[in-house]
Model the fold of this input.
Amino acid sequence: MLGTFQSSDLRIEVEASELLIRDALLRPAYLRQWLWFQKFPETISDPLKVGEVFTTWLGPVSIQHQVVEVERNSLKMSLSKGIDGYHHWCWGDGWVQSSLEGISLLPLNLGQTLNLMQLRSFLHQQRSR
Done:
């Protein structure tokens, strides 16, 4: 794998319930809305399940995700291809945390920050409905 080892942990406050955050992270229809800049395959289980393997595209870069763990308030995926590592999400009422670690040519901290900003905006819109 080409790239640099990178590690980043970010936690933000959001005005959303644990259930709304869970749906935003585990339901493909919601993922497609707030991660609009990534291309998701049409055939993903809803909600995501342990063992699920799917590939997203960030421009010309493919990232393969394998769901390793799904709990009431956490999701862990191993990553390969464009990022060789893992992504772990934890959440609760009013907060969400993303831990990302891997080897990649992509600037992972920047991407992770943008993802969390998109998630916060999406959750705010859902709450306003």
User: Anything to note?
Assistant: The helical segments are 18-26, 28-34, 108-128.
